[in-house]
């Protein structure tokens, strides 16, 4: 059941009531969330979110040395916002890595890497053993590296395809080396939006159930929202509150990442771009509503470096990491590039007046850097 109905029609809390609640750390309501979206001054919303962020994490800003690995882009579902998917191996741009190619890719990775992020298409021709062996080989080759792999959409797909329960899939993957789940595939939980944009992928309820089961098994996870297409303010608020409710009852989320819709190479590319302040406002509202999430991430790959730096003053306390070889957002039209140097990350964080903190995938501190170079 939805934690907040977008059609709820009572009087929304005004700005002063929201500020008063934040001052005493009182939980915000769905109406408060709508008030945050409707408040005309996004800088004021950002300042309020920044207050909460500093209350939780001080002036630290986190990053990770990570690399993406996408074993295949063959996928049998159709999402209107995707530029990564290919229908079959013979299609231009399609690929499927053999386990030997995965071995070679992992061998070339940065020796200081602490996280490998793995997301794939829903490939109908790969057996379950491929994914188990992939995890085993990576963990054997890089035992010190955390493997953050397979969205809830992928886990649910494997459960259906291979006649397993979600718990069985997660359990076998954990035994093979899985350390955490990424947050992708959540899109927007609204049934209306999902019917229009991604009707044949895992439902919102299945996504939430997968993360609930992962937390029960001791597998921490991330969460996301894809915004800037056809969703409404109320549907975003509902999404945040459903995540908050899950964390209340089955804790295990590490961070929340708002993902900006990319307008290239997909059927939705002709949609009007989101307002200029949407990236910063969504980050700020997320920080204020998701009071039980320890971290909020500004994902520079989708919003760009400049906005990511600004976001560290709007409620975000991290900007992802080196993100070597990111493909999914770049194939959907992102212009931010694939990969960023350590020096660029440190400069971006320091430019926002924050102290850089290198973390691993589970948010253990690897190294703290001085606030100034």
Walk me through the structure.
This protein is of the alpha/beta class and 373 residues long. The chain has 15 helices and 10 strands. The strands form 3 sheets. A 4-stranded mixed β-sheet has the order 8-1-9-10, with helices on one face. The protein has a 3-stranded parallel β-sheet with strand order 2-3-4, with helices on one face. Helix 4 packs parallel to helix 5 (128-141), helix 6 (152-161) packs across helix 7 and helix 6 crosses helix 9 (204-216).
Any chance you could write out the topology, listing elements then pairs?
Elements: H1 15-23, H2 30-38, H3 42-57, E1 60-64, E2 66-69, H4 99-107, E3 115-118, H5 128-141, E4 146-149, H6 152-161, H7 166-176, H8 191-197, H9 204-216, E5 221-227, H10 233-249, E6 253-260, H11 278-289, E7 295-296, H12 300-303, H13 305-311, E8 318-321, H14 328-331, H15 342-351, E9 355-359, E10 365-368
Helix pairs in contact: 2-10, 3-11, 4-5, 6-7, 6-9
Overall radius of gyration: 20 Å
Order of strands, widest sheet? 8-1-9-10
Which spans of ≥5 residues are poorly predicted at pLDDT below 50? 4-12, 326-337
According to DSSP, the number of beta strands is 10
Hey, roughly how much beta strand do the residues contain? 5-15%
Summarize the structure.
By secondary structure, this protein is of the alpha/beta class. It is built from 15 helices and ten strands. Helices cover 41% and strands 13% of the residues.
Keywords for this structure?
alpha/beta; four-stranded mixed β-sheet; 13% strand; globular
């Amino acid at each position: 059941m939805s934690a907040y109905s977008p059609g709820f029609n009572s009087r929304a809390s005004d700005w002063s009531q929201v500020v008063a609640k934040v001052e005493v750390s009182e939980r915000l309501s769905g109406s408060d969330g709508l008030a945050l979206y409707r408040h005309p001054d996004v800088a004021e919303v950002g300042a309020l979110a920044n207050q909460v962020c500093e209350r939780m994490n001080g002036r630290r800003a986190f990053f990770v040395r990570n690399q993406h690995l996408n074993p295949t882009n063959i996928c049998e579902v159709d999402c209107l916002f995707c530029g990564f998917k290919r229908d079959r191996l013979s299609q231009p741009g399609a690929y499927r890595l053999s386990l030997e190619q995965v071995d070679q890719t992992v061998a070339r990775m940065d020796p200081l890497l602490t996280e490998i992020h793995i997301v794939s298409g829903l490939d109908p021709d790969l057996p379950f053993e491929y994914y188990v062996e992939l995890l085993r080989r990576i963990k054997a080759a890089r035992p010190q590296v955390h493997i953050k792999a397979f969205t809830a959409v992928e886990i649910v797909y494997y459960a259906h395809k291979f006649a397993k329960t979600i718990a069985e899939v997660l359990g076998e993957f954990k035994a093979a080396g899985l350390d955490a789940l990424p947050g992708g595939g959540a899109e927007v939980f609204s049934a209306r939006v999902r019917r229009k944009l991604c009707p044949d992928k895992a439902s919102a309820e299945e996504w939430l159930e997968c993360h609930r089961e992962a937390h029960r098994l001791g597998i921490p996870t991330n969460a996301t929202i894809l915004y800037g297409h056809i969703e409404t303010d109320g549907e975003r608020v509902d999404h945040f509150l459903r995540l908050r409710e899950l964390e209340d009852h089955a804790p295990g989320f590490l961070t929340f990442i708002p993902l900006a819709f990319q307008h290239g190479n997909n059927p939705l590319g002709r949609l009007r771009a989101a307002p200029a302040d949407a990236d910063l406002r969504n980050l700020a509202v997320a920080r204020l509503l998701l009071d039980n999430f320890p971290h909020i991430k500004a994902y520079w790959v989708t919003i760009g470096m400049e906005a990511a730096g600004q976001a560290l003053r709007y409620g975000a306390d991290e900007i992802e990491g080196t993100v070597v070889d990111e493909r999914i957002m770049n194939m959907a039209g992102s212009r931010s590039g694939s990969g960023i140097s350590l020096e660029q990350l440190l400069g971006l964080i320091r430019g926002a007046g924050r102290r850089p903190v290198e973390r691993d995938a589970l948010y253990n501190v690897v190294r703290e850097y001085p606030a100034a170079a």
